[in-house]
Amino acid sequence: MVMGLINANPVVHERKERRTRQAPESTDETAVELIDHLEIFDILFIVFPHIRDIKDPEHPYSLEELNVVSEDSVEITNEPSHVRVSFTPTVEHCSMATLIGLCLRVKLMRSLPPHYKVDIRVAPGSHATEAALNKQLNDKERVAAALENSNLLDTVEECLSPTLG
Fold first, then answer.
1. Model confidence pLDDT, tens digit, residues 95-150
2. Rounded distance, CA 151 to CA 52, Å?
3. Long-range contacts: 145-148, Cβ < 8 Å, 24+?
């Protein structure tokens, strides 16, 4: 185990049973397909059967198991195309909050059509530096600069990588 954990004993929650989405009623391939919050939640956690959960950077648990992100924390507006994900760090002074938010943003950037605006936020009252974190996570230049850092990008990739077992 890593020395000096921010939250040495996180509360681990059971995974919720996945609901199945209904197939689109229209078979028109040119029709715009609307995306709902359940699909965004699925993008965050199970885009493909072999990709499991986004891993917490500090613990061997998923963000879902730590109750950092849930279905209720995802908001979607199709007109205009906008996704907002709020997450709740396990402790209010969590130093991994920026990294968690960056992982969520990268996952959505890679999974959603490019016309979607993505807004990643720390849940109100859940972090000591909430305003600064929200500003950092939604600043395109800061996100781009962070992703240019190879060590940070490697950590993001590790959190997004599939788990075995």
1. 999 999 999 999 888 888 888 899 999 999 999 999 999 999 999 999 999 999 99
2. 23
3. 146/102, 147/102, 147/106
CA-to-CA distance for 140 and 3, rounded, in angstroms?
Answer: 33
Pairwise CA distance, residues 35 & 40, whole Å: 7
| Tokens (6 digits) for 99 | 């990294």
pLDDT in tens, 39-49: 666 655 433 22
Q: Please state, in angstroms and rounded to a whole number, the distance separating the CA atoms of residues 104 and 99.
A: 9
This prediction has a pTM of: 0.74
Of 50, 138, 119, the C-alpha closest to 81 is 119
SS3 string of the chain?
Answer: CCCCCCCCCCCCCCCCCCCCCCCCCCCCCCCCCCCCHHHHHHHHHCCCCCCCCCECCCCCCECCCCCCCCHHHEEEECCCCEEEEEECCCCCCCCCHHHHHHHHHHHHHHHCCCCCEEEEEECCCCCCCHHHHHHHHCCHHHHHHHHHCHHHHHHHHHHHCCCCC
